[in-house]
Amino acid sequence: MTRLYPAPLGVLVACLVAPGSAAAEDDPDGDHHHPPPEYAAPGWSMPPSSFAEAEYPLAAQFIEADPSNFTAGGIDVVQYVVVHTMQGSYEGSINWFLNPDSDVSAHFCVRSEDGDITQMVHLDDRAWHVGNSNSWAIGIEHEGFVDDASWYTFAMYSRSAELARWLADRFALPLDRDHIVGHVELPNQTHTDPGGNWDWDLYMALVHDLVGEGRIEGVVVDPALACTLTATSDTYVKATLQDQADLGDDAKCFVAAGTELDYLHAGDDRVGHRRLVLAEDGPCAALGEGFAFADHFTGFCAPEELAVAGATVTLDGGAAVVVGADGAFAWSDVGAGAHTIDATATDFEPASLPIEHAGFPGARVVVRLPSPAATGDTTGSGESAGTDGPAPPPADPGTAGDSGDAGTDGPAPGDAPALPDTYGESEDAAGCGCQAPTAGDPRGWLVVLAAPLLRRRGARRRRAHAGA
Ligand SMILES: [Zn+2]
After folding, report:
1. Tens of pLDDT along 333-342?
2. Taking residues 15-34, what's their average pLDDT?
3. C-alpha closest to that of 288 among 277, 302, 300
4. 64 CA from centroid of ligand 1 (Å)
5. Domain map of the chain by residue range?
6. Which residues pair with 260 in a beta bridge?
7. In degrees rounded to 5, what are phi and psi of residue 185?
8. Contacts by 170-177 with C-beta closer than 8 Å and gap 24+?
9. What is the whole-number distance in angstroms between the Cα of residue 30 and the centre of ligand 1?
10. Is the pLDDT at 391 greater than 70, yes or no?
11. Å from CA of 269 to ligand 1 middle
């Protein structure tokens, strides 16, 4: 499909023929935002932060570009988020935008090694980075060089994708390649960045994989209905979308061909992967959740097959939301800080999930509701754990002490381990019962478990389910 640049183009043409538009940023050749060689060389240091705070909440600092390098108040209507490559270093480019002779600037600069972000121009101000498209564009400069893919690290992709998502949401831009574009894709440009080494598929997958600012998105599932995948080849479940070879052993889980893998939620396609929230026992359970290459598994289930349809969820005791057949729910405009999600459903034990909401990105939640009592015991207490059904897998000693109150009121907030460093590890056979993300990586799913005893029912029902 041909890429379209609808509304702004007409305006741009008008701008080009308008008299008196010879300012540096309107010069078609005036997009030379790349620093001269001396600025691309190593050895530059970071200037001190400006007094003003960055508008982007995840920016490390605001260092204002020299006022002669941008147009105060010059943004019209933002139509594009523009990806650039610096052709230089992070520190060198920041210093270049501070040089009044450069006549160039960008709103944001992103560091290669860790994705550190410096904002340099406020969003209402027109940075000079794409010539005659500047009035409609927010610019993100990435450290590195177009002909050397090694600068385009996963950390930089991830942090930049967060920024692009935040910008797109802020300016109500569709999350597509007509609005999140490379410098080379805008009209009348002399530059080729970010070039063929930029992985647009990965970048856009990361943009889509985020939850927007102030949102909580979740599903209510019945852990007894866990979906069972079968690996069709040797493969990995990975903590991120990186190639498995780039991940440490604690961030990936090998799955041999023929292995069965139980999951409670599968996200949308992300460059051929699905984000799986794994059942709390079985292969890779220690990972908690991860990305699985979809073509390496068979047996994916529709969301309706795992959901507790009709469950009621509330946020901080507010208005009740009744979930539909897919079990999904969402809240918007949720402030950063501590919140509590409660879920109930007929014949299910209630669940309560304390979460720490980062603000941006938003949070994902998987609420696991305890399964209906199978033999009439309705107390939900741990007493029933050993009284019915087939023998469970060998119990972890750590779960025994927790089973008495399991399923009644969820874990205490203080029990929530951090993500992703300890993600899954402290799940430790459901001894904790919940996982909360850190502010540093709040994109993971929060998971509330029901009760250790329910794993037995889950295993039993899963067998029944599989045999149905
Ligand atoms: Zn550029």
Report:
1. 999 999 999 9
2. 40
3. 277
4. 19
5. 6-208, 211-468
6. 230
7. -85, -10
8. 170/123, 170/213, 171/78, 171/138, 173/78, 173/79, 173/80, 173/81, 175/204, 175/207, 175/208, 176/204, 177/3, 177/204
9. 11
10. no
11. 30
Q: Report how far ligand 1's centroid is from the alpha carbon of 458 (Å).
A: 54
Q: Look at residues 306, 342, 344, 343 and name the one whose alpha carbon lies nearest to residue 325.
A: 306
- Would you place residue 372 in the very low, low, confident or very high pLDDT band (cuts 50, 70, 90)? low
233 phi and psi, to 5 degrees?
A: -155, 165
Task: Read off the pLDDT band of 35 (50, 70, 90).
Answer: confident
In angstroms, what is the span from residue 191 Cα to ligand 1's centroid?
6
**The pair of three-digit structure tokens given for residue 33, joined into one six-digit string:** 């935002």
193 C-alpha to ligand 1 centroid (Å): 5
Pairing of strands 61-62, 117-119: parallel
170 alpha carbon to ligand 1 midpoint, in Å?
22
Q: Report the predicted TM-score, pTM, of the whole model to 2 decimal places.
A: 0.76
Class of domain 6-208: alpha beta
Angle between helices 200-208 and 154-170 (to 10 degrees): 50
CA–centroid distance, 126 to ligand 1, in Å, is: 15
Residue 93 Cα to ligand 1 middle (Å): 12
Give residue 85 CA to ligand 1 midpoint distance, Å. 6
Q: How far is the CA of 66 from the centre of ligand 1 (A)?
A: 18
H helical segments located in 55-116: 90-98
**What is the per-residue pLDDT across 74-122, written as a single tens digit (0 to 9) for each?**
999 999 999 999 999 999 999 999 999 999 999 999 999 999 999 999 9
Task: Please measure the distance between the N-terminal and C-terminal CA atoms of the chain and give it in whole angstroms.
Answer: 44
Q: What is the pLDDT of residue 282?
A: 87
Q: Which percentage of the chain shows pLDDT scores above 70?
A: 72
pLDDT at 32: 52
Taking the centre of ligand 1 as the mean of its atom positions, its distance from the CA of residue 213, in whole angstroms, is 27
- C-alpha of residue 33 to centroid of ligand 1, in Å: 6
Residue 273 CA neighbour count, 13 Å, CB half? 25
d(CA 384, CA 389): 10
Interval between CA 182 and ligand 1 midpoint (Å) = 8
